[in-house]
Amino acid sequence: MKKMILALTALLLMGSGVQAQKINREALVQKIEKNEAAAADAKKAVKAATWINLGKSYIEAATLPTKDLYVGMLEMELQMKLGAPLSNEAIVIDNVTLAGANYDYFTACVMEGQVIGWKETAQVFPGATDKAIEALNKAYEVDPKQAPKIREQLMLISNYCSQLGDASNNIAEYRTATEAFKTAFRAQSSPAFGTPDASRLYYAGYCATAAGANDPASYAEGAELLNKALDLGFVDETGQIYYYLYHSYYGQREADRANVLKAKDALMTGITKFPKNQDILKSLIMLYSLEEGMGDPSELIAMLDEAIAADPQNIELWFSRAQISVALKEYDEAIEALKKTIELNPNSYEAQFFTGYYIIIKADALNTIANEKVYTSMDEAEADQKQIMAIYAEAIPYLEAAHELMPQNSDPVQLLKTLCFRLRDEVEGMMEKYQKYDALYKQMA
To answer: Is the domain covering 198-295 a CATH 1.25.40 domain?
Structure first.
């Protein structure tokens, strides 16, 4: 216990006495100037070490001010490492107010006690990262055998820029994020590095597309970067690159209507490769609904049918077909598609639940039609209601199966409670089921 008390005391003393981080800018600039002079010397310029040292001095100048920062850093740790901020300010991002801690070279944005990003407000040596890449490329040109050492320095640049890109993206500084990720990729594209990571282009493309909301010219850059990432063989795990590519083209629709068709093509390619991607699916449906010249929405079904014919065991394709069918209000086709997923995997909670859910949607639609219909007799109205109630009852076995597969999920229980109450006078035993699921739902709530 005594050791713990002493440790805490030391920690408090350290925190209270820490002064703001001081960067010796003059010394860093002098080091750069010294190394630049060496690189300008004809005898020294033929040595790779001269250019590597120059690159290192540029890297140090670029990275030193934020070397101790990282996204997720606790505000307490920020002040322990860098001292109290010079000043504080309120920063509003997307209608959310953040705490801004101003230091000599950056402003850290803090939310709920954690650093979520920062904005560089000054540089020790402007253009240092670009100059570092140039120097390291020259080092490789002078002596390719020094590639391992040069690669280490290039990785430092890439890591610094990637971290800056992430931090900038988190606080909606999308232009800064775009340039940071582009520089990260440029560092990795140097001949001494090896194969670059195309995900840096993907992140740059995403950030440029996000910047398009306030800077429409950025949409074109976003499309260029995302397409370059695709050309290099990059595709993220869920296919979001096609969703962002769609946005980058659709954001240019006022400049050239041909971009709407390019946006459609991006989504079409994406949905065939990632049929379970909800963003792509919803965007396709929206595009067909809002834009003229897209063709008949049923071509989406034809496209999926073609994909299913080539891969009939692909459950995700059947799910997508069901979702598009529901959007087109073709409820029977949607239900049949989901029944196929149950056939392929009876233990799929999603297949069982959504089959029951879509049956309810179908019955709700028929009920709406019945409520608007002018009947000529009570018998006719009762016949329609009897048919609708029979359809509602079809959902119960699927929802019960979903409940058995995932008993902790309350969604099937809630629907079963509502359905059984609705059918209590129509189907024998429904009142008992209602009481069972009502009690269970209350218990889960």
So the answer is: yes
Residue 10, pLDDT score: 33
Place of tokens 């799910």: 319
Q: How far is CA 293 from CA 128, 258, 282, 288, in A?
A: 49, 11, 18, 8
> Is 384:370 a contact under the CB 8 Å cutoff?
yes
User: For residue 426, what is the DSSP state?
Assistant: T
Question: Helix (H, G, I), strand (E, B), or coil: what is residue 374?
Answer: coil
304 contacts 321 by C-beta, under 8 angstroms: yes
The DSSP output letter for 18 is P
Residues contacting 30, CB < 8 A, separation 6+? none
pLDDT for 293-315, tens place per residue? 777 777 778 878 888 888 899 88
Helix (H) or strand (E) holding 186: helix 174-188
**Rounded Cα gap, residues 299 and 314, in angstroms:** 19
Burial class (CB in 10 A: 0-12, 13-18, 19+), 384: middle
SS3 104: coil
pLDDT digits (tens, 9 = 90+) for 365-388: 999 999 998 888 999 999 999 999
User: What ranges make up the beta strands (E) of 171-272?
Assistant: none
Name the residue type at position 193.
Answer: F
Compute how many other C-beta atoms are within 10 angstroms of the C-beta atom of residue 45. Answer: 14
Query: How far apart, in Å, are the Cα atoms of 123 and each of 25, 53, 146, 161?
Result: 9, 20, 29, 14
The pLDDT score that the predictor gives to residue 9 is 30
Contact 266, 242 (CB under 8 A): yes
Cα separation of 26 and 440, whole Å? 71
Cα separation, 47 vs 75, whole angstroms:
45
Nearest alpha carbon to residue 323 among 396, 260, 271: 271
Assess contact for 352 and 396: CB atoms under 8 A.
no
Residue 249, helix vs strand vs coil:
helix
CB 334 within 8 A of CB 304: no
Share of the chain above pLDDT 70, in %: 95
Q: Are strands 87-93 and 114-120 parallel, antiparallel or unpaired?
A: unpaired
| Phi and psi, residue 308, nearest 5° | -65, -40
Give the chain's length: 445
**How many CB atoms within 10 Å of residue 115?**
22
Residues 202/187, Cβ–Cβ less than 8 Å: no
As a whole number of angstroms, the distance between CA 122 and CA 62 comes to 10
Task: Give the ranges where 41-92 is alpha helix by DSSP (H).
Answer: 48-63, 75-82
